[in-house]
Amino acid sequence: MSSVAVLTPESFEEHRSGLKDQEITGCVPEDEAYIPTYLEAFPPLPEKGAPGEKSGEPVSAWGSKIRPIKASVITQVFHVPLEERRYKDNSQFGEGEEAKVCLDIMQRTGAHIELSLAKDQGLSIMVTGKLDSVMKARKEIVARLQTQASATVAIPKEHHRFVIGKNGEKLQELELKTATKIAIPRPDDPSANIRITGTKEGIEKARHEILLISAEQDKRAVERLSLEKAFHPFIAGAHNRLVQELSQETGARISIPPPSLPKDEIVITGEKEAVALAVSRIRAIYEDKKRKTTTISVEVKKSQHKYIIGPKGNTLQEILEATGVSVEMPPLDSASETIILRGEPDKLGPALTQVYAKAKSVMVVEASAPAWLHRFIIGKKGQNIGRITQQLPRVHIEFTDGEERISLEGPTEEVEQAQAQIQEIIKDLLVRMDYTEVIIDPRFHRHLIGKNGANINRIKEQYKVSVRIPQDSERSNLVRIEGDPKGVQMARRELIEMVQRMENERTKDLIVEQKFHRTIIGQKGEKIKEVRDKFPEVIINFPDPSQKSDIVQLRGPKNEVEKCAKFLQKIIADLIENSFSISVPIFKQFHKNIIGKGGANIKKIREETNTKIDLPTENSNSEMIVITGKKSNCEAARDRILAIQRELANIKEMEVAIPAKLHNSLIGSKGCLVRSIMEDCGGVHIHFPSEGSGSDKVTIRGPVGEVEKAKRQLLQLAEEKQVNNFTAELQAKPEYHKFLIGRGGANIRRVRDRTGARIIFPSPDDTEQELITIVGKEEAVHQAQRELESLVKNLDDVVEDCMEVDVRHHRHFVCRRGQVLRELAEEYGGMAVSFPRTGSNSQKVTLKGAKDCVEAAKKRIQEIIEDLESQVSVEVAIPQRYHRAIMGPKGCRIQHITREHEVQIKFPERDDNAAGQEASPQENGEVIPDAEFVPRKCDIIIISGRAERCEPAKAALLALVPITEDVEVSYDLHRYIIGQKGSGIRKMMEEYEVNIWVPQPDKQLNVIKVTGLAANVERAKLGLLERVRELQAEQEDRALRSFKVTMSVDPKFHPKIIGRKGAVISQIRKDHNVIIQFPDKGDEQQDLIVISGYERNVEEAREAIQQLVAELQEMVSQDVHLDSRTHARIIGARGKAIRKLMEEFKVDIRFPQPGSDEPDKVTVMGLPDTVDAAIDHLLNLEEEYLLSVTETETLAAYMKPPSRYGGGGGGAGGVDDNSGGPAKGFVVRDAPWNAAGNKAWSLMSLSQIQARACIRGFTAPDMSSAEDFPTFGTGVAPKQTSAWGPKKF
């Protein structure tokens, strides 16, 4: 019989209420079964406003009372009258100081603030947010937006602490509540006045609250009684009951110091009358006890005092309660053993008896056990000792480390029981357990433990022992093994063997630079894992990165360590070879060309030279490009990068022979000398050979003229160094440096010319910004030093001077945030220039600074004024469409012209309508130039400056106007020049900085137009013609590669010619560089194969295919019948087994598709001998696998689960074995489908319910329907799959 779980009323109610504590298992007899109603099994959801709520009963089983949720956000509105507003300017309401203050308060408090202006010009403020945030915001608003008043209030000094409150909480609350600032005098200040600052309304509120607190404290009194400490227990009573009763009766608060505090004072606080009553009652008790009590002293062992005191002093309180006698104990840290009993004479006897009884109620015994056995007595996680303490909770057991004793303390009987149990445990452990100690060198300890404790855990589990290896900090060589005697000896033997093996092992240290460690280890340790897999017996240890050590340790058998060391040394040698690095200085403006569009150029150089190339970031001032890799590859990459720079600019490279011994002196301290030459010569690059190379060659690279200049200066400096090398240093403020140098270096050049000395100023990167270095002959250096010192001294004398500047020129000096004034200050020693305020009509300009700087600045201002007065404006007409090209990237070209010619250039506003009238741009280039140009307003560019400077600037501007030239290019080549999606034409336009216009395809013109600067157009023309020649060569080559041959091959051989995943045909294509096309499925001629390519290659490929076909024709095909149940086993997981078999016998084996008419038919194809051998092997496999399949099916027949509907065998049917119908399942009464509430419905069969339901106009649920009642956990018949496994998509 199968069991059916029946839902009883009790279990159902427990289910509904959620109070069921344990699950019901098993079955309930049929006669006790209870059938629930539909509403009980499926309770309805609660309805809104159900009557059940009023009666206090739950609406339904689902119902639960939901607490109302309070809003966490509040809003407060308050008003600031006009006379109290701090900021009264309404012209900027919402933008002035009030708005800024509110914004700051919102950010600091998190509250939202809204301001509005009332009709009376008062301020209405609405604050929204959490309560705490609103209160803080309100306080800040009142303090910052409302005028503040102050007032004082005087209350007694002793009441101040009540205004402050605990930890200042009361004061903070008061300040928030009243939005005021309350200042209370310090305790040492004799003043009793409290100062309140805030609005009038807030001050009144705060004053009222403070006076209320003081008035409340006036009603209270404090009394301090000094009574002997010995009588305090009688006043407090047992367990403080007497003093509590006294507090309740009188209403006063009575504070008695604890026994541990040696203080006689008792404090009583409260209402005056209550305090007076309490004082009189306490004095009466004290006088009574002092008169009636006497004392006796007894000696009790100090160790027993704690038992008399009891936990938290409870025993003393019990004695006081029982006898009325107070027991005075000496302090625990005192050596005294005297106990004093104080009480009435007739009660001292019983109290003394209780004291002795308590002292002897606890006994202490000791048990002896070896110290190593203690942890086994305690047990894992204290299990053994826990059992004893649970049975005997009043026994305290204490183990002492390193000692062979166990202390037991507690009631006599329980201690004896615990002692007996512990002795039994010790006796049992001494029989079962043993230990041994092995001396092992600490250097082997971590190897014995193994990675993550692998070795030691294995020994512990294998021999059931405990192995204790000392910590490194202990510096001990003693390893202890504890456990079963036999296991201990075996573990000891294995540990000794491991140590002997390690002693025979060799340790070798490899010196590997730390920078290579991460590379050798690889990402996530992948590379070092490969090394460890190759040498599994060798342990490779890398030092911790924080140690900055270069030593890598190898440990293992001697031969393996040597092999591993050689392997690692080879890896290191490759890394060293590939880590060669050189830095190449490249002018910053050419970095983008070296990178190329989308990084194309730099990527190509990296791939072809197999190097790593790092460029400085765009915002960096560095010009160095770092190349890393093999030396030869790095040099090749450097040459290619330098070649790009040479192509882009007129760059010259020159070598100068200077003796190597002078190199360091020429470079100077931190490179200051050589840097000054590079800066003086327009940023040339000077490269000295590496120290110790012995080379005399110094390389200078840069623009042609600057290279020559740098060469002269370098040779001159070298000559000076050889003749007389003298150096002096001078200190000057950094702001004086520009004045000392002068405009364009004029001042410092005069000093150099007069003295012949070289003067070097610090660069922005130098740490010593005040240090000026003078180099040359001793006499020249001293003369230059004197001149510079004189100049610096003059600069230190600050003077103030005035000059007049016409008001109309003031704007030129102060516009652009005073840029001209900043430049003057920087150039002339940090002097200050002050212009009058705008609108004052004053012409007086004040200059303050060093005398020489002021004079020079006045002269410079006069020059600027003369320039402004002599300025003219020149108009240049250039079509608007060229303006962007003339400006250049980020306006760099225009900036260059304005700097070089000292003029101002203004471009007109862009006219989009005018731009629309121009020719529309083509897909791949610029617009077609107009035949005739008529200037418009938007075409006029205005140049302002001196007349003699405007004309050269105009010529320079016109030189930037693009020109257009035609290039003859055959129409057939246009699409190749444009490239895929215009990539080819875009690349050329970016490379040559021109616009290239290709005519529309329908015009079929043989002309391409190139527009740009003259020099760029010429380069683009040459590049275009070069591209044309390349395309023509490609066309000729394409014609040669178009040779085709067609050959006929039987379609059945096509799969073999193609090979697995196209491997065979791909190899033929690769070997002969041809294209081979097979017929598509729908083609009529399925036997034709087309080969195309160079004629010779095509012929060779055809011969290769013919040879392959000849071999295939020798093959035979034979069918063999194998039981389909064994196919999956023969094929193996993912076809692995069958592939191995086909490779072994050199045959092709085909299995039938699922659903085939002949599921057992297998086809084997190959050479006759190999086919026969393969078939024999397959038949043997079938016979072997059939035995296994038969056994599995037989076993499965007995393991089948019982039938769902009770028809199965094995006695696992439904409720009634005799009935062949389905089980009743879950049954309910009064269901919706039971229209008349007839109980018989729920007991009808499924067919009867369905029949009657149809008569009444609705359909009962179909329990046999998998859709209405889906099954869970039952098996689903799998779809038929291929023997090769599931398909992959």
Automatic annotation (TrEMBL):
PROSITE patterns: KH_TYPE_1
CDD domains: KH-I_Vigilin_rpt1, KH-I_Vigilin_rpt10, KH-I_Vigilin_rpt11, KH-I_Vigilin_rpt12, KH-I_Vigilin_rpt13, KH-I_Vigilin_rpt14, KH-I_Vigilin_rpt15, KH-I_Vigilin_rpt2
Subcellular location: Cytoplasm; Nucleus
Coiled coil: 774-801, 1091-1118
One GO-annotated biological process of the protein: lipid transport
Function recorded in the entry: Appears to play a role in cell sterol metabolism. It may function to protect cells from over-accumulation of cholesterol.
InterPro entries for the chain: KH_dom, KH_dom_type_1, KH_dom_type_1_sf, KH_Vigilin_N
GO cellular component: cytoplasm; high-density lipoprotein particle; nucleus
GO molecular function: mRNA binding
Occurrences of domain K Homology (ranges): 147-215, 219-287, 292-360, 361-427, 432-500, 504-573, 578-646, 650-719, 724-793, 797-866, 870-962, 963-1029, 1041-1110, 1114-1183
Keyword line: Acetylation, Cholesterol metabolism, Coiled coil, Cytoplasm, HDL, Lipid metabolism, Lipid transport, Nucleus, Phosphoprotein, Repeat, RNA-binding, Steroid metabolism, Sterol metabolism, Transport
Protein name: Vigilin
